[in-house]
Write a structure and sequence with these properties.
eight-stranded parallel beta sheet; seven-stranded mixed beta sheet; binds zinc ion
Length: about 400
């Protein structure tokens, strides 16, 4: 297969391009066989297939049953608790598979979902996840995180059972952390379990605008103390946006030393943070520019889709990216395109880092946009998905 006259963003070029920006590619045997400078002006834009670093496929598409929570995180949590009584394999499977179908059609090559896991025994969603992970192997690499309220880890036996089951199912250990009582000893327990069972960690942390929410800093300290650099991911960190500059920058420097990966969730953050009884001023997006300057790994991810937390949305990562670009002033936009490609590949520990070069997997998005100004709009985001060197519509019409 030949691809002609495509612009490849600078951050995705894993080859020496000199001054060239537009390239012709040949794909063969599922790989990029050659990349050559093109004699023509750009006719489109080429990206590596995006990676979804943070989703909740166990609860998506439930908003018609739960209602939207109108911007109140803890009200959304209570609504989902009630709804969870109806969760079993038969009700979970269709909506979990629907998420993968949608992500696949938009070109996503890997997806990490959190699974609500509030009790010592594994949730019903785990068996569904494991079956889907097998069924989708080769299309979407599926990972899961146990999303457990931090307080559950106060019970040593409960924490140990969760960690053992996560290890058996080859998942990632996680916790929801927000201003808990006795935060430090409970977090320490999570880290001890991760070390004991050889697990990676992925937190929901500081998802609120209280300046006193400082879980991120404690996670960075514990990561260094336990030697888990490069194995810990933190989603949200909204409170960082309202803390004093010097404190926030100091925290980010510590996070960089700890090799933390930070994920911003634009749609959910914008929807759940800030006022609902007036026009919101505070918006809750974490400090992306400062985090990049400090040297942290960064991703943008989708988070909730059509559930009590966020009643809208879908699984097009370019939609999430466009929202992030507009809300956080990520310009020039193509300099940030790694936040939905290489960044999440690193966070998930994938084999391929998402850089384009000869020999790299031919898992690509071929976009109609010819430059970044067209990318932030529906026409430019029109795409052909290429997997293993073949057009998706030819493989699965
Ligand atoms: Zn989440």
């Amino acid at each position: 297969m030949e691809l002609k006259a495509l612009h490849i963003p600078r951050v995705l070029r894993g080859f020496d391009a000199g001054a060239d920006q537009v390239f012709d590619l040949r794909l063969q045997d599922g790989r990029i066989a050659s990349i050559r400078p093109s004699a023509e002006a750009a006719r489109g834009l080429l990206l590596s297939a995006p990676v979804e670093a943070h989703a909740h496929i166990d609860k998506n598409y439930t908003v018609e049953e739960t209602g939207g929570a109108q911007g109140d995180l803890f009200s959304a949590i209570r609504r989902m608790e009630v709804h969870r009584a109806s969760w079993n394999g038969a009700t979970l499977q269709p909506r979990m598979e629907r998420a993968l179908q949608e992500a696949w059609r938009f070109g996503t090559r890997a997806l990490r979902t959190h699974l609500d896991w509030g009790r010592p025994e594994a949730p019903a969603s785990l068996a569904v996840l494991e079956a889907l992970r097998d069924a989708w192997r080769g299309r979407i690499e599926l990972q899961f995180v146990a999303l457990t309220p931090l307080d559950v880890y106060a019970d040593e036996d409960a924490g140990a059972r969760i960690a053992r089951e996560v290890q058996r199912a080859q998942g990632v250990l996680g916790a929801f952390v927000y201003r808990n009582a006795d935060l430090a000893p409970k977090l320490r327990r999570v880290f001890a379990l991760a070390v004991q069972h050889g697990l990676r960690l992925d937190f929901h942390v500081d998802e609120g605008l209280d300046v006193e929410a400082r879980g991120l800093r404690q996670i960075a300290e514990l990561t260094l103390e336990h030697g888990l650099q490069g194995r810990v991911v933190c989603g949200h960190a909204c409170s960082l946006s309202v803390q004093p500059d010097d404190e926030a920058l100091e925290t980010l420097a510590l996070c960089a030393r700890a090799g933390l990966h930070l994920i911003a969730l634009p749609s959910t953050n914008l929807y759940l943070q800030g006022a609902w009884d007036r026009t919101p001023v505070q918006r809750g997006l974490t400090r992306l520019h400062e985090a990049r300057a400090a040297g942290l790994g960064l991703s943008l991810a989708t988070d909730n889709v059509q559930d009590a937390f966020y009643p809208y949305g879908g699984y097009d990562l370019l939609d999430t990216f466009a929202l992030g670009v507009q809300a956080a002033h990520l310009a020039p936009a193509l300099d940030w395109i790694d936040t939905v490609t290489m960044g999440p590949a690193q966070a998930l520990g994938l084999d391929w880092d998402g850089r384009l070069h000869e020999g790299a997997p031919a898992d690509l998005l071929w976009l109609q946009a010819r430059h970044e100004y067209e990318l932030i709009g529906p026409r430019g985001r029109a795409r052909r998905v290429i997997r293993a060197g073949r057009l998706l519509e030819e493989m699965h019409p």
